[in-house]
Amino acid sequence: MKTLFDKIWDKHIVDTMPDGTVQLYIDRLYCHEVTSPQAFEGLRRRGLKPMHPERIICVADHNIPTINQDQPIADPVSRLQVATLEKNCREFGLTYYGLQHPRNGIVHVVGPEYGFTLPGMTIVCGDSHTSTHGALGAIAFGIGTSEVEMTLATQCLLQRKPKTMRITVDGRMRRDVTAKDLSLYLISKMGAGGATGFFVEYAGETIRNCTMEERLTICNMSIEMGARGGMIAPDEKTIEYIHGTDFAPRWDAWKKSKAEWARLCSDPDATFDAEFSFRAEAVEPMVTFGTNPGMAMGIRERIPVPESAEDNERSSWLKALEYMGFEPWEPILGKPIDYVFLGSCTNGRVEDFAAFASIVKGKKKAESVTAWLVPGSHTVLRQIRAKNIDKILEEAGFEIRQPGCSACLAMNDDKVPPGKYVVSTSNRNFEGRQGPGARTILASPIVAAAAAITGKISDPREIYTHEA
Q1: What is the domain count for the chain?
Q2: Tell me: the pLDDT tens digits for 53-63?
Q3: Does some domain include residue 239?
Q4: pLDDT tens, 86-130?
Q5: Domain that holds residue 97
Q6: CA nearest neighbour of 177 among 462, 450, 446
Q7: Which residues pair with 157 in a beta bridge?
Q8: CA angle centred on 144, ends 143 and 150, rounded to 5°
Q9: Are residues 444 and 311 in the same domain?
């Protein structure tokens, strides 16, 4: 009996080394401008070319600006990295989606929406949040630059098989509770290192009821509890999501693929190295209060300190509160905020913008708040306009920026100033993650919207919700 992970992994083994390390075939390599330059230079030095250029997609996303994309990039480092990626793609004959290309966007948004990512694939990228693609029933994980070079040259990687974990969530989520809340809840219960060394499969009634975009959010956040990656077995929702995308199989190949994907699930008697179960009804709208995603709590709770924790854990916890300017046991509800960021590969899709719009419709952005609303791709931007979500947002005083990673990691112009508080729908709240000295509170698009119109941490359940 095999798990979903076992079935895909075993099918991609090219060879097994004496020490148990395997040579794993990689179906898809995604590259962006930050972790690829040294890899391409390595190929150049060794006189090599990509073995399967048709299996490689390159996208500029991390360093690009989210305004004035028709103009030269102002920052010289960012400009050089983006230009270098374009040059490397041209030299090595690779598909490249640069600034203003209609398929440009965050690589982990673009991959699924165009059908580059398909069930049963092995997928890698020089980016930890490659785990996002696991939502389509793929083994997807981040790699280092030397491994990017190895994949470019051989379309294979040397890997040790990780352990497997299944997290089952049953029940129905409450009103104004989202997949992002569920992810933060799971990480708070598991701990920021609770899944280290594991590949996680999500299962249960709650996961089955999630939309594909919600599943992408959940798998994206897997890495924040230390997991190697996350995945969800493909079902009819997955097939419907893929059907008709630009690079989905066609005609007879589509029928064959559907039959193969239907077999991609864990066998009933499959054994996992670890199993955990949770109830969706226990999840409230969540916010983080510290400096890792595991420091999360229900929005109406008081900021905790682990009284029974070891001294080193307790001291790091208190250090995190000091950085954030918070005190143990005080409520976070009502705390003033300065910035709101809606976007990233975690929550930069059209459903996230619709959820945000459902809260702000008929209201006005707080004058004290600077809001950056950044679609995850040009496709998402087109969907926002087609659904008239942009008009709702504009009437409420918000401006939609151009696609990119934006404030998720402060490698571009979208940096939160030192000491300022930002409610962010991205995936990490490390010290300085969104700008040197910035204080990040992770939340769902709904909680972010509530903060944007009140200027403080607010419970969205107290705000009348419209349909966007």
Answers
A1: 3
A2: 999 999 999 99
A3: no
A4: 999 999 999 999 999 999 999 999 999 999 999 999 999 999 999
A5: 4-162+247-257
A6: 446
A7: 24
A8: 85
A9: yes
